[in-house]
Design brief:
Elements (H helix, E strand, L loop, with lengths): L6 E7 L6 H15 L3 E7 L6 H11 L3 E5 L6 H11 L4 E4 L11 H11 L3 E5 L7 H18 L11 E4 H4 L12 H7 L5 E5 L16 H18 L3 H32 L11 H28 L14
Parallel strand pairs: 1-2, 1-4, 2-3, 5-7
Antiparallel strand pairs: 4-6, 5-6
């Protein structure tokens, strides 16, 4: 095995025993043609079939293969995170194991990184072979992600991506965050993000592993990524701002009611009881909500102050 390969392929998989030998052969042929050193890291995410046995047999033939097997199914984000931790290459490429991503795109994506000084290049499956139940929600998620993150990619969740090694070592994936690696990279300081149209292959073996829960998890994870990226180290700036606006609104309405009551009394005019006016309850509700947002901000700051990751700042260079 090469100590410092040029490319590390990180391939998460779940029940893909049929496609693994063909995928391995495909990667090796491309690497030999381009004369590039490589390593392949297969992460078996708790497969129930013979995927791990296939990985073991492939490793006996090719010592550039490394394998990681989870005790149970943890999800794609966990598999990618474990794979990223294990990489040794100068560049890291991620592929899905279902043969829908072409390894032939990887050398060109690396060339884009080197020629344009990019941090990562994301694939764009412009022509897809997925059912409408998958393509329509994907288009909606991509549009929303572009608006919220300011990263104008057409396909955030494409499994085919290539990174500089420093990028994957600087981000942390959990939950279903694999959908939003470009925003995570951006918030970690890697702003030079490119995109390449890639060929999408029709699924050859097995069935898709993603269920209906992605329709709920996707938007929630996007909100988490955006919030943590912008306010992760300063939650009071978010909660405190909203709390201040709500409290000022409520206090302003209450002040108005009080002044109006006093003016009516001085002019000997009939005046309603403040507690019987609708505006009083609007003011009271706004001040209570504003106070709660303030408390939420203080609690978040206290938790963050005691967090081991609060003062983790990525250093690009030193001299």
């Amino acid at each position: 095995m090469i100590d410092k390969p040029y490319i590390s392929f990180v391939i998460p998989l779940f029940n893909e025993e049929e496609s693994l030998p063909e995928l391995h052969e495909w990667i090796v042929s491309v690497m030999k043609e381009k004369e590039m050193t490589y390593e392949i890291i297969f992460i078996d995410d708790g497969s129930k079939d013979a995927s791990w046995s296939v990985i073991e047999s492939l490793q006996k033939k090719d010592d550039n293969i490394r394998g990681i097997k989870f005790q149970r199914n943890y999800g794609k984000s966990a598999a990618l995170q474990k794979g990223f931790e294990a990489t040794k290459g100068e560049y890291v490429a991620t592929l899905d194991a279902d043969l829908q991503d072409s390894p032939e795109e990887v050398p060109e994506m690396i060339e884009m990184i080197t020629d344009n000084d990019l941090d990562l290049v994301s694939g764009w499956k412009k022509k897809r072979y997925d059912p409408l139940s998958k393509t329509i929600p994907t288009k909606l998620y991509n549009w929303t992600a572009r608006k919220l993150t300011g990263i104008y990619l057409h396909d955030f969740n494409c499994g085919l991506k290539v990174y500089k090694a420093s990028v994957v070592k600087s981000i942390e994936l959990y939950g279903d965050m694999h959908r939003y690696i470009p925003p995570l990279a951006k918030y970690a300081g890697f702003n030079r993000i490119g995109e390449k149209v890639v060929q999408h292959q029709a699924r050859k073996y097995g069935t898709t592993k993603f269920g209906l829960n992605r329709f709920v998890n996707g938007p929630l994870d996007l909100l988490s990524v955006v919030f943590m990226g912008k306010f992760g180290k300063k939650p009071m700036h978010f909660f405190g701002f909203i709390g201040t606006l709500m409290f000022i609104l409520g206090f302003g309405i209450a002040l108005y009611l009080g002044i109006d009551k006093i003016i009516s009394l001085f002019n000997d005019e009939p005046a309603k009881l403040i507690a019987s006016r609708t505006e009083f309850y609007i003011a009271l509700t706004a001040m209570v909500i504003g106070s709660q947002f303030f408390l939420a901000g203080f609690v978040a700051e206290m938790i963050g102050r005691n967090s081991s990751s609060r003062n983790v700042y990525l250093v690009e260079k030193e001299i």
